[in-house]
Amino acid sequence: MNNNLGNKETMADNIKYYMKKFNKSRMDMCNALGVKYTTFTDWVKGNSYPRIDKIELMANYFGITKSDLVEVRDTLTEIPMSNIVFDDYFPLHYYSGLSAGSFEELLEAEPDSVVYVPIIFQGRKKRLHAFKVNGTSMNNVIPDGSIVVIEDTHNNAMRYSDGTIIIAFMDGTATVKRLYSSGNQIMLMPDSSDKSHMPILITQEQQLIIIGKVIWHMNPEDIAEKWY
User: Does the global pTM surpass 0.90?
Assistant: First the structure.
């Protein structure tokens, strides 16, 4: 069993996160779930844990999965350009126009843009890459047009916790998704307000390369402010 499951504090944090995200009050939640105010307050404070049927109701109410409520969420640090002191950041060059091609082209393309990344990431032992996100399949977390920075792990045999946001390469295209695995099955899940984006089940015939884990991103509004 995943050690992140069944944790009252994790559940409380996730409920508060999605209440804020979807602008729901405690009373809204009580009415939707059919529970007493004191019962729901205990969930939000981490004093008690909801039954599985109530977790499912909450997930349906928010339009998310049960895993989104019970598992530790990956958090991405989004830092506005107006807050940047450049002594605390370092430049990472990247190619902004590449969305498809070979795996080698994806990683080795001649850079034509730069993003300033927090200096705390400069000491990472693994190579860092930056990519521009095109599309809305992850717009609940990463807006269309954002720059994401990943820690290169494609040469390392490492396990990712369910829900980790990764950049994967398959069928000649790079994609940003949440990663879930069960036994020999791998699922790439969107995290989007656009429900037309569907999960991708990786078959044994498909070659999937996980390039790395997303560790930071900058939204497109801040990118626009940077370029004159």
Answer: no
